[in-house]
Amino acid sequence: MNPASVLLLAFAADVYCGQGELSGEPTQTTVLLQTRLTAIPGPQLSSEGDVPGAAGVVCFEWGTTEQLTEAFRTDWQNATADHDFIVRTKLSGLIPGTEYFYRCVHGLSQDVVQTGPVRRFRTLPANDSRRSVSFCMGSCMNYHSFMHGKPNGGGPVTATEEDKALGYPSFAAMTALRPDFFIGTGDIVYYDHPPREAAQTVPELRRKWHEQFRFPRLIDFFSRTPAYWSKDDHDFRFNDADTHGARLPSTSTGIGLFREQLPIVEAGDADSPTYRTHRIHRDVQLWFLEGRDYRSDNRQPDGPEKTIWGKEQKQWLQQTLLASDATWKILISPTPMVGPDRNSKTDNHANLAGFRYEADSFFQWLKDHHQDRVLCFCGDRHWQYHSIHPMGVEEFCTGALNDENAIRGEKPGGKKTTDPEGLIRQPYIYKDPTGGFLHVKISSPTDQSAELIISHYDDTGRILNSVTKTAAE
C-alpha cells in the first residue's frame, strides 16, 4: 500500500457513526434509514460533553441476507453541518412482512470508506396477514435524572455506574423481548432539564439528542428494532409548551429539530404532517397523533374552539377510523385522554381546565358511530396505569422509561385529581414507582382466536400487569 493510501485510511478512521443507525417509519414496502457522522466513536462524550459531528459521505447497503450478498446500495449523500451531519434515506419497493439487513458505508470521501456493522428491520405484514406482531412503547426518558441521580418526582434512584455507561436498563429488557418495532411517544429528550441549564439554541438542543443516542444499549436495541416517533412538550420546547409565547426555543425550532433528529419523514420534508396511521396486522391499526403543532393556547378557556389536534387532524382521524375494518383501533397519544391526572395541569385532554371538551366530544363521537374497540395508548404521565372512561374508552399509560423519572401517580376519586368523583374505573396502577414500558402482542392464528395482549413491564423485564382481549368479546 502506498503512503497516500495509508494516509487516507488514517483520515477515514477519524469519521465514525457514534450514535449507531436508526430505521424508522416502516410500512409494508418502505422504511427510512438514518445515521449521523461523528468525530469521536462514543460512547464517551467529548471534553465539551457532546458527540461532535463530522463531515463526510454516507451510503447504505441493504438486502434480504445477513451476509448482504448481492446487496443493493443507495446513492451517496453528504453529511453536513446544516443538518447536524445526519444522513437519511428512504428504501422503497420492499416486500411486506420481510426481514431486511443493512449497513452504513461511510468516510471522508468515496475514495476510502469504512463499512459498519450489519443492522436489521422488518417491514409491516400485509393487511390480511395473521402472523404474530409485537411492539414495545416507551416515554419520558430523563437523561439528567438518570445520570445524576436526581429523582424527578419521588421515584427511586437505581442507576449504577454500569448503567450510566451503557444506558437505560429498559432498553436491555426490551431487546430481550425481540419486538418487531418500538414506539417512542414523546419526551425522548428533555430540553429543559436541568432547569438552570435549559437548552435554547440549536447547538444546545442538538446536544440533548447526541448524549441520549450514544448509549450502547440504545444503539444495540435500534440496530435490530425500527421505530415510530412522536414528540411531546420536553422534546418540543419546554414543560407543557404550546405554540404561543416568545420563550426559547421557538415553535418553529422545536418542530424542525424533531424532524431533523428522528426518521419520521424524508430528509428535508418540512411540510408533511406527522400524524399518520399504519395497519400493522389484520386485526390492528395504529393512529399516531400530533399533540403540539396545532394546539390552542393552554390558558384559553375550555370549549368547542379549544383544541390539541386542530381541525384538519380531527377530521382526518374521524374519517380514517370510519374507513378502517381493523378489529382493534389504537390511538398513540403523547398525552393522556382518560387519566386521571393531577388537577393542577391544563396541558392535556384529561385536565379539567385543559382540553376536556375535545376529549369528551370525541368519546361521544366514537359512541355515536359505534367505534367500540378504540383504545388509547399514551405517554407523558410518569406512572403506569390502565383506566376506563365512563363512556368505555380504555387507556394504557406507558409510564417513564427510567426509574428516576417515575412517580406514584393518581387514582380515581382523589380530591386533587381530574376525577374527584371517581367516575373512572382503574383496573391497574402500579404499586411502587418504577421505570418500564408497554409490550403489546397481536396473535391471530385462526379467524376465531385473535388476541391482543397488553402488558406493563418494569425496567428489569418483569411483567407487572397484563390484559388479554379477544376478537370474540
What descriptors fit this protein?
473 residues, alpha+beta, seven-stranded mixed beta sheet, six-stranded antiparallel beta sheet, 22 strands, 18% helix, disordered N terminus
Could you characterize what this model shows?
The chain contains nine helices and 22 strands. The longest helix is centred in the last third of the chain and has 13 residues, at 311-323. It has 473 residues and is α+β, with helices and mostly antiparallel strands. It is 18% helix and 26% strand. The chain starts with a helix and ends with a strand. Residues 1-11 have low confidence and may be disordered. Helix 4 (169-177) packs parallel to helix 6. The protein has a seven-stranded mixed β-sheet, with helices on one face. Strands 3, 4, 5, 7, 8 and 9 form a six-stranded antiparallel β-sheet that branches. It has a six-stranded mixed β-sheet with strand order 12-11-10-20-21-22, with no helix packed on it.
Poorly predicted segments: 1-11
Number of strands: 22
Sum up the overall morphology in one term.
Answer: globular
Radius of gyration, Cα only, in angstroms? 22 Å
Indicate the proportion of strand residues.
25-35%
Summarize the structure.
This protein is α+β, with helices and mostly antiparallel strands. Helix content is 18%, strand content 26%.
Helix-strand layout with pairing:
Elements: H1 3-12, E1 21-24, E2 31-36, E3 56-63, E4 72-73, E5 77-79, E6 86-91, E7 99-109, E8 112-115, E9 119-122, E10 133-138, H2 143-148, H3 161-166, H4 169-177, E11 181-185, H5 202-212, H6 216-222, E12 227-230, H7 251-261, E13 276-281, E14 284-288, H8 311-323, E15 328-333, H9 356-368, E16 374-378, E17 384-388, E18 394-398, E19 425-429, E20 436-443, E21 451-458, E22 463-470
Parallel strand pairs: 10-11, 11-12, 14-15, 15-16, 16-18
Antiparallel strand pairs: 1-2, 2-6, 3-4, 3-5, 3-7, 7-8, 7-9, 10-20, 13-14, 17-18, 17-19, 20-21, 21-22
Helix pairs in contact: 4-6
